[in-house]
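Bumping my old thread because nobody answered last time. Still need a sequence for this structure:
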């Protein structure tokens, strides 16, 4: 497993605890359990939304069965998952980007990280939320904002391409597609943190984090061209 970002945060779960949790989730006794990367992705969504998913429900989703949760190993895993959830909540509310737990796409030493399982698990959390994420949003700007933050996940799971082709729309190919995938990978951690803070603010538990007016290189150019800042006015920056 690889971690995309190293930070100086005080974690709520230790490396040894993560290793133990990873081993428990991979145990054949939990044949329907999520992997560690999937558990993190799912929890990032389950802890967000209009109403966070209750602990009992997300434990069942991650461990796969009531029998698994009730077992001795399941109880140990549940305790570690509570630590993981606490750590995720701390990271998502922090100014630093979330540290993603990702597995490589292959066995080679230089194999790239596999974002798809993480993103699929997150979107599963969105789909199985206590309340629909979009139904309660009366403001079209909020709907558009949330769609934009979810877009990297849709790209990395292939759902954005499938939707585009279903509607007869063009989809990037070659280097343009490679750049879109790279950008989506880079934007993922920031996007899920902003989504978490958005829902926390909606529930009255915080404020939406802003970037003090600074334009990110992947943000829309403030000139109104519709292009990314790095491809427009920021090209010479």
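Sorry it took so long. Here it is:
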């Amino acid at each position: 497993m690889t971690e995309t970002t190293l930070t100086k945060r005080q974690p709520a779960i230790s490396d040894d605890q993560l290793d133990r949790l990873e081993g428990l989730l991979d145990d054949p006794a939990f044949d329907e359990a999520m992997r560690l990367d999937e558990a993190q992705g799912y929890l990032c969504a389950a802890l967000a939304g209009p109403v966070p998913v209750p602990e009992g429900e997300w434990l069942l989703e991650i461990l796969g069965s009531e029998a698994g949760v009730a077992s001795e190993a399941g109880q140990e895993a549940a305790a570690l998952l509570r630590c993981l959830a606490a750590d995720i909540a701390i990271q998502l509310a922090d100014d630093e980007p979330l540290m993603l737990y990702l597995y490589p796409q292959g066995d080679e030493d230089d194999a790239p990280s596999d974002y798809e399982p993480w993103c699929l698990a997150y979107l599963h959390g969105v789909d199985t939320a206590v309340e629909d994420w979009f139904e309660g949003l009366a403001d079209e700007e909020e709907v558009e904002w949330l769609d934009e933050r979810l877009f990297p996940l849709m790209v990395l799971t292939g759902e954005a391409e499938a939707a585009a082709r279903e509607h007869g729309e063009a989809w990037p190919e070659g280097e343009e597609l490679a750049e879109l995938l790279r950008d989506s990978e880079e934007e993922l951690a920031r996007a899920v943190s902003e989504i978490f803070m958005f829902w926390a603010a909606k529930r009255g538990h915080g404020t939406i984090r802003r970037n003090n007016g600074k334009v990110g290189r992947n943000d829309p150019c403030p000139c109104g061209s519709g292009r990314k800042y790095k491809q427009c006015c920021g090209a010479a920056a």
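DSSP finds nine helices and three strands in the chain. Let me know if any region looks off to you.
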